[in-house]
Specification:
By secondary structure, the chain is α/β, with parallel strands linked by helices. It is built from 14 helices and 13 strands. α5 packs parallel to α6, α5 crosses α9 and α6 runs parallel beside α7. The structure holds pyridoxal-5'-phosphate. The site of pyridoxal-5'-phosphate (PLP) has 18 residues, from α6 and α10.
Length: 413
């Protein structure tokens, strides 16, 4: 096995068409799409009976450890269109001390911070940009809370595609800098991500760029789907009892739900599903409200605020898909406040030596809350998604200093 086997050789492609997630209407593959004719997200459909015949668990096990090992279940047809920066499989890190302390079951953190550009957004954007290359798109634009823009900038530059990105003005500095450094034009906007989305939407007709917004583009979700494929494979083609996912636009949650369905159809897993838990911040919790109100769509959340900037998404175009996955899986949606997020981040860093990002810390805070109120059983094995490296966020200053010219009081150590 060579390191680039998954990227270089041709493999059979099984995409049959795209389907409107709301109406089921069929849309043609291999042409440029944004939303469906009904104005809803499009989902890629495959000849799963064909995949079942062509692919075995053993074949996958022999392939290089990156997300392209699942190529038969991905939309990119030709190897030449793959735009890779090394999309490694991410580790599952157990947190035994915290499990013991809380008296619950296994806490497993899937650490997405190891991916190129330091976040899980690489999964979605490597797919979107590879498909943009295949479809000869020349200019991509996107609203972002930071990490998605960084991933788009990196991959689009690699593919030679021009990129214009809009982010809220208080987006973490590191994100804005990495976007610019990786070759995109980036603008801070005095608004939230949906305000940035409006600029991208309007510019589509005026500038002619491609709108790469979450779920308004059909392939980011296919990339995010690999979180579910990979997780199941890493657990021995099994699923955990619960998945805690920091939910903004929800692509990852919807993608994983789609992954489990496809895996069952190709005979790799059975009918067991994890309970999908959508985690939001109490300062921006449209999905939690809609879940509790028993409705299918979530109205815009006004005055959205949280330190977990990646999940500060006031309104999601795929709201009904998030809520559908949560409900069908018998999961739930839960909000945690910024204080609990900070406390969770500190606790895991100090007790397990693992630095979460704030969105990842939200999943840990939500797990603790759910264990305490009985929504998660003590025997449940839970997977928490740490969607970005904790190092991408501002960290507290450490002020202790020593003067090497003065006598040191060794008693203080
Ligand atoms: C670190 C982090 N976690 C979670 C999310 C939310 O992801 P999704 O859009 O899949 O809900 C984001 C999105 O920006 C993010 O950057």
């Amino acid at each position: 096995m060579r390191f680039d086997d998954n990227l270089s050789g041709e493999r059979p492609s099984f995409v049959t068409h795209l389907e409107c997630a709301m109406t089921g209407e069929r849309h043609e593959a291999d042409v440029v799409h944004n939303l469906s004719r009904a104005g809803k997200p499009l989902l890629v459909r495959y000849d799963l009976a064909g995949v079942k015949k062509a692919l075995s668990k053993e074949t996958i096990a022999r392939r290089a450890p990156d997300l392209w090992r699942y190529r038969e279940l991905l939309p990119v047809r030709k190897a030449a269109d793959i735009v890779s920066l090394g999309e490694c499989m991410t580790p599952i890190v157990p947190m035994p001390r915290l499990s013991k302390k809380l008296g619950g079951g296994d806490i497993l953190v899937k650490d997405e911070g190891r991916l190129p550009t330091g976040s899980f957004k690489a999964r979605g954007l490597v797919m979107a940009v590879s498909m943009a290359k295949a479809l000869d798109i020349k200019h991509m634009a996107m609203p972002t809370n930071g990490n998605a823009g960084a991933a788009l900038a990196a991959y689009a530059t690699r593919a030679g595609i021009k990129t214009t990105i809009f982010c809220p003005e208080d987006t973490p500095e590191v994100n804005v800098s990495e976007i610019a450094l990786q070759g995109a034009d980036v603008y801070r906007v005095n608004g939230l991500i949906d305000d940035c989305g409006k600029i991208v939407g309007e510019g589509k007709a005026k500038v002619g760029w491609f709108d790469t917004s979450t779920l308004k583009e059909p392939y980011r979700i296919e990339g995010k789907k690999t979180m579910g494929l990979e997780l199941a494979e890493q657990l021995g083609w099994d699923v955990p009892d619960a998945i805690f996912y920091p939910t903004g636009g929800g692509t990852g949650l919807i993608g994983m739900w789609k992954a489990f369905d496809e895996l069952e159809k190709i005979g790799f897993i059975g009918s067991k599903r994890p309970r999908m838990v959508a985690v939001q911040a109490s300062g921006c919790a449209p999905m939690v409200k809609a879940y509790e109100d028993g409705v299918e769509h979530a109205p815009r959340w006004e005055n959205a605020h949280t330190i977990a900037s990646g999940i500060r998404v006031p309104q999601a175009v795929g709201d009904f898909l998030i809520l559908r996955a949560v409900r069908e899986s018998k999961g739930f949606a839960i909000a945690v406040d910024d204080e609990a997020i900070s406390a969770g981040l500190n606790e895991m860093a100090r007790e397990e030596g693992f630095l979460l990002c704030p969105e990842g810390a939200a999943t840990y805070a939500a797990y603790k809350k759910s264990l305490a109120d009985g929504r998660v059983a003590k025997s449940d094995r839970a997977v928490l998604f740490n969607c970005a490296s904790g190092l991408k966020y501002p960290l507290p200053k450490m002020e202790r200093k020593l003067d090497r010219h003065q006598p040191i009081d060794y008693g203080m150590f």
